[in-house]
Amino acid sequence: MVDPDRIVSSESEELILVDRDDNVTGYGSKADCHDGEGLLHRAFSVFLFNPAGELLLQQRADGKRLWPGFWSNTCCSHPRRGESIEVATRRRLEDELNIRADLEFVYKFVYQAPFGDEGSEHEFCHVYLGRVTEAPRPNANEIASTRYVSAAELDGEFAAGPGRFTPWFRMEWETLKTEYADRLDRYTGPVAGR
To answer: Which of 14, 49, 121, 166 has a Cα at 20 to 30 A from 172?
Structure first.
């Protein structure tokens, strides 16, 4: 049986550097990609919903270099050198949550977000939606806690305390609601007030 709390990432793993058109420009260690203002690298962000239309959130483990203890969407990570986004998303869902899910690509965007003196995210991020039907078993090295929230509850939490959430999660949720509402509604059901 696979250890659910196995070590699944390191600062030395090689990530994929890209330009603003998502063309590969080279490779860099995870540490180098997140130092200072960050190097632009390929990443992905996954939003999984249960059959009731609730989003699975994760609280990042306290040992994370960037945004430890912050709440975020279901899964966020990077493909490694030589790895496709499709393979990386499957790997990371198993690494972090010990689950599998079919995913639907929605959009991609570039963002940069500093985290004090600890470093920055500077990512060309591919955003996916999907459905989860099995119970997550969080890897304690990656995730402190998980919970489900409805779209309306999440909007309320963002309004009341946006600083508890990762910046990419807030950006992506707003874009999903405003630019891809029809796709989002397939997972959440129509949200009042939109």
So the answer is: 14
Residue 4 has pLDDT above 70, yes or no: no
Task: Specify the pTM.
Answer: 0.93
Q: Under a CB-based contact definition with an 8 Å cutoff, are residues 59 and 65 in contact?
A: no
The per-residue pLDDT of the chain, averaged, comes to 92
The DSSP call for residue 147 is: E
Whether residue 98 contacts residue 4, with contact meaning beta carbons closer than 8 Å, is answered with: yes
Compute the distance between CA of residue 71 and CA of residue 57 in angstroms, rounded to an integer.
Answer: 7
Catalytic residue among 14, 33, 75, 76: 76
Sequence-ordered list of residues with C-beta below 8 angstroms from that of 189, at least 6 positions apart, any chain: 53
If you write DSSP's letter for every residue of 17-67 in order, what string do you get?
EE-TT--EEEEEEHHHHHSTT---EEEEEEEEE-TTSPEEEEEEPTT-SSS
Q: 123, 125, 142, 172: which is the annotated catalytic residue?
A: 123
Q: By C-alpha distance, which of 29, 133, 46 is closest to 96?
A: 46
| Model pLDDT, residue 117 | 86
- The dihedrals phi and psi of 3, each to the nearest 5 degrees, come to -70, 120
How far is Cα 165 from Cα 148, in angstroms, rounded to an integer?
14
Model pLDDT, residue 192: 43
Antiparallel, parallel or unpaired: β 41-49 and 120-131: parallel
Tokens of 95: 């690494």
pLDDT (mean) for 27-40: 94
Is 76 annotated as catalytic?
yes
